[in-house]
Amino acid sequence: MMRVLWSRLRAVFRRGALDARLDEEVQTHLDELAAEYMRRGATRDEARRAARREFGGVTQMKEAHRDRRGIPLLETLGQDARYAARALRRHRWFAAVALLSLTLGIAGTTTVFSVMNGAILRPLAGRDVGELVVLEPQRNHERYLLFNPEFEVLRERQRSLSGMFAAAEQPFLKVEFPGEPPSYVRASLVSGSYFDVIGVRPAAGRLLTGSDDSVSPDTPCAAVISESLWNRRFARDASAIGRVLRLRDKDCAIVGVAPAAFAGHQPGSIPELWLPLRTVSERRVLDSQTLAFYSGVMGRLNPGVTRDQAQAELTTLYREIQALEPPLPPTIRQPPKPSELSMRVADGSAGLHNLRRQYGEALTMMLGAVALVLLIAAINVANLQLARGANRVREIATRLALGASRWRIMRQLATEGAVIAVAGGASGVSLAVLLTPVLTAMVFGARAAALDVSLDVRVLATAGAATMLTAIVVGVIPALRLSAPRSSRSLSLGDRSRDPVGSQRLMGTLVVAQFALCLLLVTAAGLLARTSLRLSGIDLGFDSGHVVLLEIADETPGGSQSFSAIETPETKATRATAYRLAEERLSAIPGVQSASLSWYGLFSANDLWTTVVDPGRPSDRREAHVNFVSPRYFETVGMRMSRGRTFTGTDGFEAPRVAVVNQALARQRFGTRDPIGAQLTPDFPGEEDRPVTIVGVIEDARYNSLRETTTGPMMWLPLQQAVYRINSVDLRVLPGAEAAVSRQAAEVLRSVSPYLMVRGSTTLADQVGRTASRERLLFRLSLAFGGFALLLAAIGLHGMLAYKVARRTREIGVRLALGAQRSSVVGMFFRDGLALAVASAVIGVPLALAAGWSLRAFLFGVAPRDPATLAGACGVLALTVLVASCVPAVRASRVDPVVALRSE
Amino acid sequence: MDEVPYGALDLMVLKTLDGLGPLHGYGIARRIEQVAEGSLALNQGTIYPALLRLEQKGWIASEWGMSENNRRARFYAITRAGKKQLAVEADLWSRTVAMMSRLLEEQS
After folding, report:
1. What is the mean pLDDT of chain A?
2. Where would I find the H helices in A612-737?
3. Distance from CA of B13 to the nearest CA of A (A)
4. A763 strand-pairing partners
5. How far is CA A82 from each of CA A46, A87, A399, A821, rounded to the nearest angstrom?
6. C-beta atoms of A25 and B25 within 8 A
7. Torsion over CA of A11, A12, A14 and A20, rounded to 10 degrees?
8. Residue A601 above 80 pLDDT?
């Protein structure tokens, strides 16, 4: 069978040679036959005729030969494609509109899918990644934490996995290469089995192994560097292996290089350094039930074990371990019951799911929207094709009359659609290659660089599938309709006005479908527009304009890195001096109006709560956010005083301890009483019995999220009185000075101490805006998609009406001749458009409601079924219909009855 | 004169090539006519699609050569696979014929 197929396939491409061979064979045959007849005494002519007779029909035989020889379908396909290309060249406008809309539709779909593929779907560069799983500890089916002792026991006792590792990200790990000032490296702290489990081979040296987990504290730990770090810092020198890095209080020796193809275990984050988690962490921390926890745990399934089986085993074990644990300290408000816990085992072929959690839903929405746009574009082209086809009724009737089968005509019309679709697909994919990096940057910002969004088999397959579906809509629907057998009267002249009613009805249906889908997109855009407006219209409670934020880490050695540890007063005093100096020098930078330092910045996603005790009633322990700030903080970020005072330079280390609170805390703790002068004790380690006196009240504000509906209690303490390591520098600057100031500020901080390291700089407005970036992105995209879809639908409607006008020129002429008003003719076409609009709304409104419902997680300050938005969307739809009907309607009213009647 | 039964032409061609060695199309047609002794209505042209079919299946092979009258002609020869197929088909054919004749005798 294969053999026959192969020889036939070959024959398709050797058609000419094979025809010649057959011709020659037949000629020889005829010559031999004729010669035979002549030997028997026939004349040359008689012999030739007799030979022909005996041979039978040469042409029929050749045709039969050809059919057997090649693949007729393929050969006529080539013919049809050439014919279609010719036809399209003749109708440039149609071809341009069709090609453009399909290109944009397929480019959009491919682009969004590429981004999704790079962020969520692309498999890790490991061995048999299908066996990799992500372990997600859950409490009541919500994400939960897995502490190190639990992790270790679990790993020890489980039997479903051949290996298991934990990983913790350190985007800013301070590393000192010998003889250099400290710098930051993006690091992953991982179990030693990490590379074995994922299945990575070294580019040089060796990778981490299980034995790197347990080395004695005085030998250097093992470190693996990335190929890019190897290139950048060591110029691929083999002597890099063996070099020693200093991390805080530990030395690590480079043992090998991970290959560039391995981009880590988590899309969007490419580590430059891998360190054995156990060896670099303090024993005390590892053994604690509250300190070292992992949200990133992965494993590899044993052969033959399914994810469900592994999940059952691990959940049972996880609960057993929890039941054996000693009760947790009271800082965790409600210790979990074992029955609340479970260990979800999810597909790990694409690594950890952080990006999927954050962006999965938004990307899925986007993909849905672009797919709709593509569908609308395809319907539009199908419609234009129908309108065009109606003008070809005679051509088709002629071909049917000349003996073409309906199947053949259909195939030819479908090929025309397919040619457009394939051309649109090809240019769409090319355009997508250009658009993908742009969209990636829009969605992921700084993280975009760490994502590989290049074309791969999955993207191409998706683009191919989109093209194929488009080809079906664009080719098959019109082909079915147009090739429908008609009466032979279609051939007769003067039948141009005879209306293929079926075509018109189908066109109407398609236009209604387009507008219904448009209504969905426009409603979604409307809901997201209102969300964006509401989010940007929120009163933040502070002034985010012209404030530069520097994210700082104070990496000064000595003292404690952790907030919960107790530091000596000397350490704190030294630190206080350095911070005062930094504040002075920052204030002196030209363009800076006000400078301040704080423990953490606004909207920095620090959500730390501290218990605050009323010293008068020790049982009154309630939680509040606490921040430590320098005196000019409130002025810098523009928070408004309600009562009392803010901090001054005199609120120093030795001065009486003071605090400022927000209105929410004042209300919660003191009700209508005056909070000024009252005392509270923040329950920090080592400071439990040092109450602070409230000296001021600040108006409530948003601190971490625009979506906060109620403001939590908040308390500020002078940085000089409780000197923790700062994480943020805030600078109010003159408009336009942002970039220069942020550059100079970094230098100033370096001059104060090389250990005040800048991790990043931004503005307060950007910092706030980032929290609504998904909503704004979805809004902008849905606006673009909705607008484009409306334009397409308008083109479709215009095409249909224009076609109708052309069909009915004679009828209009008669009406006008009989005295009809031109306005009534115009009205006739507007009524048609309006009827379509109403039908679209009837179908579209439920779709739009469904769209609103699926968007509900992204909406803010607007209900998913907001009637005003829906009404607005319907209005936009009606307006579009009106505009699209205008031109054809006016053209209809300009029909000159005399010309119209004479032309037929 | 009768039509060639379905499938019989292929078998005739194979048998002819097996018995006489490589032949051109005209030779094959002539040989079949001779054997049929006028009991067969064969348009000689119909053997060409049959030859193509057999060649596609790999049962015969062809090459250019010179005919007895010094004309360039395509010569067909049976292949090893063709011989096997001939044995199978011949067997099937004779059993079919035997079965058909028994059936027809009983009925009459």
Report:
1. 85
2. 633-637, 663-670
3. 16
4. A548
5. 44, 9, 17, 48
6. yes
7. 80
8. yes
- Chain A residues closer than 8 Å to B50 by CB: none
Rounded (10°) CA dihedral A28, A30, A36, A40: -150
Separation of alpha carbons A726 and A601, rounded Å: 9
Please identify which residue in the block is written with the tokens 């050749």: A62
β partners of residue A758: A552
What tokens does A721 get? Answer: 């009185």
Name the range with the highest mean pLDDT among A96-100, A171-175, A593-597, A824-828.
A593-597
Give the type of residue at B65: G
How far apart CA B86 and CA B83 sit, in angstroms, is 5
Number of A:B CB contacts under 8 A? 68
CA distance A377 to A460: 20
Buried b / exposed e along A170-198 (16+ C-beta atoms within 10 A): bebbbbbeeeeebebbbbbbbbbbbbbbb
Q: Do residues A589 and A745 touch, judged by C-beta distance below 8 A?
A: yes
Residue pLDDT, tens place only, A512-522 = 998 999 999 99
Give the pLDDT score at A176: 86
Q: Is A56 touching B (CB cutoff 8 A)?
A: yes
pLDDT, tens digit, 9 for 90 and up, residues A239-254: 889 899 888 778 899 9
Cβ(A229)–Cβ(A272) below 8 Å:
yes
Cα separation values, A484 from A277, A407, A416, A634, Å: 72, 10, 17, 77
pLDDT tens-digit profile of A766-793? 888 888 888 888 888 888 888 988 988 8
Share of chain A residues as helix, strand and coil, in percent rounded to the nearest 5: 55, 15, 30
pLDDT at B89: 87
How high is the pLDDT of residue A22?
Answer: 86
Q: Which residues of chain B lie closer than 8 angstroms to A69, CB-CB? A: 52
Q: pLDDT tens digits, residue range A290-310?
A: 666 776 899 999 999 999 999
Determine whether the interchain pair A35/B69 forms a contact, defined as Cβ–Cβ distance below 8 Å: yes
Please answer whether residues B11 and B90 qualify as being in contact, where contact means their C-beta atoms are separated by less than 8 angstroms: yes
| pLDDT tens by residue, B23-44 | 888 888 888 888 877 777 677 8
Minimal CA–CA distance to A370: which of A105, A100, A117? Answer: A105
Q: What is the mean pLDDT of residues A174-196?
A: 87
Least confident of A114-123, A481-490, A657-666: A481-490
Q: Is the pLDDT of residue A1 over 70?
A: no
A498: burial class by Cβ within 10 Å (0-12, 13-18, 19+)?
Answer: middle
Q: Which residues contact A370 (CB under 8 A, 6 or more apart)?
A: A105, A108, A109, A111, A112, A785
User: Who wins on pLDDT, A58 or A870?
Assistant: A870
Residue A878 sits at the vertex; the CA angle it makes with A875 and A880, to the nearest 5 degrees, is 110
Q: Which residues pair with B1 in a beta bridge?
A: none
Q: What is the full DSSP assignment across A57-115?
A: -HHHHHHHHHHHHS-HHHHHHHHHHHHHHHHHHH-HHHHHHHHHHHHHHHHHHHHHHHH
Query: Does the beta-carbon distance from B24 to A28 stay under 8 Å?
Result: yes
pLDDT along chain B (108 residues), means of 10: 65 89 88 78 81 87 85 90 90 87 77
| Residues of B with Cβ-Cβ distance to A56 under 8 angstroms | 43-46
**Of the partner residues B43, B55, B74, the one whose CB lies closest to the CB of residue A55:** B43
Amino acid identity at A670: F
Residue A625 pairs with which residues in a beta bridge? A609, A714
Give yes or no for A810 touching B (CB within 8 A).
Answer: no
Q: What proportion of chain A, given as a percentage, has pLDDT over 90?
A: 29
**A382 and A478 Cβ atoms separated by less than 8 Å:** yes
The whole-angstrom separation of Cα A380 and Cα A99 is 11
